[in-house]
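Give me the fold.
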Amino acid sequence: MCGHKIPLVADLPSQLEHTKLPKTAALGILGIPGVTAYISLIHACKVSGGETVVISSAAGQIGHIIGQIAKILGCRVVGYTGNSDKASWLKTEL
């Protein structure tokens, strides 16, 4: 389980290649939330397919990205959140 702080240094590009993506994409999946989710799940926790990933604040900015990456990897994803509206959104949209 990954419930403690792990210092990590990762080599990331200093800027994204020019694309036709809107600049707002850098605020979401391609920005700090997406990079945080990816580095945490892949490099710090070293998750692989077939494992169960439990996510606190699963409907949050980073939590829902972790859930999507874990699903892509073939993991079983269990998330919890603060209310039934958020839980419904997770079940129907993600």
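The chain has three helices and two strands.
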